[in-house]
Amino acid sequence: MATQLALNHPAPDFELQDTDFVNLKLSKFRNKSNVVLVFLRGLVCPFARAQLAQLRQDYPAFIERNAEIIVITQDGTHTIKRYWQENDIHFNGVTDYKSKVAEMYHQPVDMFDKGKLPAVFIVDKSGIIRYVHYAESMSDIPANQDLVIVLDHINLGQKT
User: Fold this and answer.
1) Cβ atoms 135, 117 nearer than 8 A
2) How far apart are CA 109 and CA 41, in angstroms?
3) 3-state SS assignment for residue 150
4) What is the rounded CA–CA span in Å between residue 155 and residue 40?
5) Are 157 and 37 in contact (CB under 8 A)?
6) In which region does residue 70 sit, left (phi positive, over 0), alpha (psi from -120 to 50) or beta (all else)?
7) How confident is the model over 29-55, as pLDDT tens digits?
8) 120: Cβ–Cβ under 8 A, 6 or more apart, which residues?
9) Burial of residue 102 (number of CB atoms within 10 Å: 0-12, 13-18, 19+)
10) pTM to 2 decimals?
11) Helix 144-155 with 46-64: angle, nearest 10 deg
């Protein structure tokens, strides 16, 4: 696999447009909340849609752990907004149409499937990457419970 971002290093800051057509910066959450960054393959992918449903179902558990979710996809803002409305999603969705942020985070690409693979990062309140999951296939998506455990460790001040 190509270069990956390392644990316990600063997360690259970015600014992308959300579903309200407002620019959302990762650093906006610094010293306020942990952030779960979810890089999707795209909203046409059934595994991506399943991951969104899973995140939506457990969103209260993330909020209880002082964590916001930011989903990053190449889909356009209108497409994301429509999908969020149709599926009652309340966390952030942003468009990375030209994949600049995906490249910053080294989102893996599977040349055989001709597309990006999922990736998940947890960034703590101080802006440090505390969890990294680079998928090996479209269906390789971490369970929410695993992410919640990492957040519990972060909130208790433990290394992950």
Assistant:
1) yes
2) 9
3) helix
4) 26
5) no
6) beta
7) 999 999 999 999 889 999 999 999 999
8) 36, 37, 38, 39, 131, 132, 133, 141, 142, 147
9) buried
10) 0.92
11) 30
| Cα separation, 146 vs 122, whole angstroms | 11
Structural tokens at position 42: 């795209």
* Parallel/antiparallel/unpaired status of strands 15-18 and 92-95: antiparallel
Identify the sign of the CA torsion 49, 51, 14, 85. Answer: positive
Residue 111 has pLDDT above 90, yes or no: no
The token duo for 43 is 């909203």
The structural domains of the chain, ordered by start, are 30-155 (3.40.30.10)
Q: Which residue has the tokens 């356009």?
A: 76
Burial label, 144 (beta-carbon count in 10 A; 0-12, 13-18, 19+): middle
